[in-house]
Fold each of these.
Amino acid sequence: MFPKVTLLSLALAAVVYGQQVGTLTAENHPQLQVQQCTSGGSCTTQSRSITLDSNWRWTHEVSSSTNCYTGNEWDTSICPDPTTCATNCALDGADYSGTYGITTSGNALTLKFVTHGPYSTNIGSRVYLLDSSGSKYQLFNLKNQEFTFDVDMSNLPCGLNGALYFIQMDADGGMARFPTNKAGAKYGTGYCDTQCPQDIKFINGQANVLNWVPSDTDVNAGTGEYGTCCSEMDIWEANSQAAAVTPHVCSGITGQTRCSGTQCGDGDERYDGFCDKDGCDFNSWRMGDQTFLGPGKTVNTNSKFTVVTQFLTSDNTTTGTLHEIRRLYVQNGKVIQNSKTTFPGISAYDSITDNFCNDQKALFGDTNSFESKGGLAAMGSAFEAGMALVMSIWDDHAVNMLWLDSDYPTDAPASQPGISRGPCATTSGQPSVVESQSGDAYVTYSNIKFGPIGSTYAH
């Protein structure tokens, strides 16, 4: 326990500095090895680390262990407004394995779904790869490059999502742009994506307390007045039954941007906001091949396999315009080419191009916000600016993950092209059920490699 004099000085400092770093739990980033490869196929190991997203962290008064946020509600006596709350409250360090079920070993990261810690029960997690400094996110530009990793999702049932993706957030977590943010990337601040999430507790160095509404279904979450938007490249959203690769882009903004009202694209205003929430997804099952990925299928999710994603440019240079995203797999030493679309009236696409996206949207009767927000060229521009690597495990309180692994929307016939996305029942995926029945679920990402096209896997 700190002496009273120290507590007073900390409290005075908080008035000046805003969103603080707590000192009650030590922050020790779990180490994770990744590899950077060259065109000759030679790969160099880099020692990196991961950090937990700030939304999962303990948020308490700077001068005590009193919670600023408990369950899904703010303490309005500590947090009467965004600035005062950021002044009064600190983000603390994390017990990665004990509280959050997050462990690393060499080049492998394992994320447990439900973890019963000493003080709480934790559901899911989201972590970021840090650079060699340990205080900034490692940013990637994957134009004319490929990104490869191994995944074991044999213990991810219907309704769960083991996600690996990139987002265009600030390398320092927003510290330079928002001086009231003193926690930064080291403590997992600055998150954004194309859903412009409004459940983020601190945005732009201020607490998202205005008009905060606790969730009716999630005891740990709520939504505030603001959301946080940026372009997003979903390399991998998957469970043992289904998988999708999906670029999403934003227009009218550059990098992480706070939104409010129509800008966030909520509800009936889904296509009026900054970002393309639907994206242009390639899900093998949804594109007509129900034999390709799953337990015992061509890509057998009962065991580990390698996922390779290639970002091809128009002139095969790192400065060219992104024009194709290709996917292939490696399992048991065998290279497996991606599945092809099988619907009549559409070409047999096996990769994501602007033509694929346009034809897919037309076939499915979907709004083509991907094209209107800039398409693949906009995705390439986001990579040029630098994108941070995110790895997570989560369940879906909005629509039970049916958009990934079942029939969605549920009021349309499954025989209609684009409705069936996986084999899971439309009654599956309810968070209360998966949290109680599949709490021991986990995903393991390992052997992350990146480099020029063809450099990261044996072929």
Amino acid sequence: MQDTTWTTPGQRHLFAILGDYYQLTKPRLILLFLITTAAAMEVASQGSVDPLLLLVTLVSGALAAAAANTINCFYDRDIDQIMERTSSRPLPAGRIQPWESLVFAGALAVTAFALLSIFANLLSAGLAMAGIVVYVAVYTHWLKRSSPQNIVIGGAAGAIPPLVGWAAVTGELSWPAWVLFAIIFVWTPPHFWPLAMLIQEDYAKVNVPMLPVVNGDGPTAKQIFIYTLVLLPTTLLLVYPCHVAGWLYGLVAVGLGVGFIYRAWDLIQAPGDKDRARALFKFSILYMMLLCVGLVVDSLPVTQTFIANLTSQVKTLVALCL
């Protein structure tokens, strides 16, 4: 029996082109943005977010992040060509022309803005565009090649997605939304710097002053530890004084925070150990995912009912014992 070929050479070429454009968006970076957006929406709606609004906001957030990442690839195509891990990307490899990437990014941004404006509100749409501007203008253009604190200030771009989610649900930005922003903002340096420690040779090759390149592994590890110490009490602000999360989330936040601090302290003991840096980087991703899961589960009505009933039973039992 003769083999059947399901794709023609033309189709395979089309798939390759689509794959290159998909690669420009850096899809692996987008997932965490969507998780933090969804968590913010669940909390803002007290666990009862409208499914259509959730879907549209997440799709729009993915498009906005994809636009920002594509522009980042456009701007960094010169250094990407030199760095070993990025030399095969579509722009430095010549598979996509620079002007084509800009048109693609523009289309993504306009679509994201339109969707949020129509299905949510202008505030959330404007915040999504602000995220693109901060990432491109503040981080990529201004700070990345000029300051070892680039990821600290530029990290504000990655902290905007929960603001978008909160605004999409409520139409405003109250204090809990800004606490969510602060959590992502403080989490970003101890998340990114371990990765920078692993690939600092690449950054040094293209004169990008990441903290490990400028100050070395030891001072970077100490900075990471300090940020993990600040992160733990920051996460608990949602419990008090914001009162938008309960003790279930609080327990999750404390447990994850202690684990983060322990791993950061372990890195200080051997700052040059690539395995410890890699383990810390991987844990930082797991940390944010589980923190958001804990926040979402805590906000669900069924969870709140269960906790209220459990608290009532405990109070009754204590009263009987007394």
